[in-house]
Write a structure and sequence with these properties.
membrane; about 0% strand; transmembrane helix; 2 domains; transmembrane; MFS transporter; about 110 residues
Length: about 110
């Protein structure tokens, strides 16, 4: 949430000025279409940035956790935990205390029992 506040604080003036520039340069009868295209472009850019960053973070998570999972973890649980942090969290809730804590340790997450 803090990240979004910081991003939008920095991006908002640029978005407002960009929209003003686009709408101001369009003929009055096309101002609505120009504003819609400007807004669509900005929303698409933000969505693409979030998707790209999410993909990179997921790839890094999978690479980092590949060798850090506990050896005694069942294969299906290991596969789910390797996939996403949310899955690892869910798997850790179902494991006995020490094994669940060991699973979440590389991610810096507290154990489910804590």
């Amino acid at each position: 949430m803090t990240g979004f506040v910081l991003v939008y604080t920095g991006v908002s003036p640029m978005m407002a000025l960009g929209t003003d520039l686009v709408v101001g340069s369009a003929p009055p009868e096309k101002a609505g279409s120009a504003a819609a295209m400007s807004e669509t472009g900005m929303e698409f850019g933000i969505a693409l940035g979030i998707a790209g960053l999410g993909s990179v973070v997921t790839a890094v998570y999978r690479d980092e956790t590949a060798d850090t999972l506990p050896r005694e973890l069942p294969e299906d649980a290991a596969h789910a935990a390797r996939d996403t942090l949310a899955n690892a969290d869910a798997v850790a809730d179902e494991l006995p205390g020490p094994l669940g804590a060991e699973l979440l340790e590389p991610a810096g997450r507290p154990s489910p029992a804590a």
